[in-house]
Specification:
23 helices; elongated; 5-stranded mixed sheet; alpha+beta; Beta Polymerase, domain 2
């Protein structure tokens, strides 16, 4: 074993003892090149340490302007080049180990031994560790050869989709095809946590576009198949416009929801799940679709999905509550129904989900507007909204027959309750008996 190779191995061990990865790039090839007479005494090393870190371990290390070279070290007549290691968690296993550098490639060219696999060698550079994308020409493009760049870090696919959604930009066609080709590997090699970290950077008002792109490139099929399957579930949009897919409706609700609550990321995510239960409750009968209890089924399915995506328990509870209760304001609520709705801490979000749902369907606001008016009565004490005794109770207590007098007594009883003169059922019975007696005497 030549001395430069021994020294390179020693440098790698020093780096590794300090807690960082390092290795001699293509050790077999470099041994062969060093053994040849006349070969320059140089070695290529890959490490995750940056220049400052190398400087602390090897004070005589120098910066380098060569492409892909973090630093160089001259020692005992040999030069050691330090290259940035591929450390992205989402990289293809075969691309985690560097096999060629520009220097080694040139030596192979001089020998006439350039393998086909070396036609586009890749060495990660520090600047590639940012977002790995360019935006020339108003398009999101994966830098370099897109398929090869994705093999270094498949998370680039999700990142490109995130930038496209947030900035309303198209994805460059070759980059888009690379993302489609690599969709399965995105799910194989990228952790759910890393994917969701990218997702959390998507603005609420752009999440609908992000989810649609995930569906189109088929990443969504593996990440949340329950949502992707909604693209094959049909429902009636409205009587005039006919059928639509539940997925199309879902993304439309996601688009409209932030119009009132523009920064509500969790509310928008809840809109994505609000109809997931329709996948499990859909039933076609007499020419119509029905989805009975889809909100309750959907809440249970959503909990399973969010746990799979490693959401914190408090976020899971919030989103599942919104999904479970999103149907309440779709019906004309009574005072009691409004009070039950207002007992839910997140009822303003639920109301906006319903508003977005109506917009997405081009539907009627009749029930929704009724409930908004009823909300104005929500702070009024319950005893001030309904009398203690209904018409039948009043007739039983007074002996009156059905007629306008019963309605008059009921209204007077309600006024007495609001004024605080009547505070219990017993007092209410005494009040109506006395009022009826006065009515008889007056007549």
């Amino acid at each position: 074993m030549s001395q430069p190779f021994k020294d390179a191995t020693g440098l790698c061990k020093t780096i590794m003892r300090n807690g960082y990865d390092a290795y001699v790039i293509n050790a077999r090839l470099q041994k062969t090149l060093l053994a040849e007479a006349g070969s320059q005494l140089a070695m290529d090393i890959s490490t995750e340490l940056d220049f400052e870190g190398l400087k602390r371990l090897f004070p005589s290390v120098e910066p380098s302007d060569e492409e892909g070279v973090v630093a160089r070290l001259r020692q005992d007549g040999a030069t050691f080049f330090f290259h940035a290691a591929a450390v992205e968690n989402g990289g293809h296993p075969e691309e985690c180990v560097a096999r060629l550098t520009p220097r080694l490639l040139k030596l192979l060219q001089d020998r006439g031994e350039i393998p086909l696999a070396a036609a586009c060698p890749y060495l990660p550079a520090p600047e590639d560790r940012d977002h790995g994308l360019s935006f020339d020409g108003g398009e999101v493009r994966i830098k370099g050869f897109a398929d090869q760049a994705l093999k270094q870090d498949y998370l680039l696919a999700v990142r490109a989709i995130r930038f496209a959604a947030n900035y309303h930009l198209p994805i460059e066609p070759n980059s888009w095809l690379a993302i489609i080709r690599g969709a399965r590997r995105v799910l194989d090699y990228c952790s759910v946590s890393d994917i969701m970290d990218e997702w959390r950077k998507v603005e609420a008002e752009n999440m609908h576009a992000f989810v649609r792109l995930l569906l189109e490139c088929q990443i969504l099929h593996g990440l949340i198949p329950e949502i992707a399957a909604l693209a094959r579930v049909k429902q009636i949009k409205n009587p005039e416009e006919g059928e639509e897919t539940v997925f199309d409706h879902t993304t439309e609700v996601m688009r409209h929801y932030p119009e009132v609550l523009p920064y509500d990321w969790y509310g928008t995510l809840a809109c994505m799940f609000h109809d997931v239960g329709k996948l499990y409750t859909a039933e076609y009968s007499d020419g119509q679709w029905s989805f009975l209890q889809h909100h309750r089924v959907g809440a249970k399915v959503t909990r399973k999905i969010l746990n799979r995506l490693h959401f914190p328990s408090e976020d899971v509870d919030l989103i599942c509550t919104l999904v479970r209760d999103h149907m309440r304001p779709h019906f004309m609520l009574t005072d009691k129904g409004i009070r039950r709705l207002m007992a839910i801490d997140e009822y303003p979000r639920i109301l906006e989900m319903v508003r977005a749902d109506i917009k997405a369907r081009n539907g009627s606001y009749r029930e929704f507007n009724h409930n908004l008016k009823m909300l104005e009565r929500g702070d009024t004490p319950e005893e001030a909204l309904e009398p203690f005794l209904n018409g039948r109770d009043i007739m039983q207590a007074t002996g009156l027959n059905p007629g306008p007098t019963v309605g008059i007594i009921r209204d007077e009883l309600l006024k007495a309750q609001i004024a605080g003169d009547v505070t219990s059922i017993d007092e209410a019975k005494s009040f109506v008996v006395c009022y009826a007696k006065d009515e008889r005497l007056g007549n």
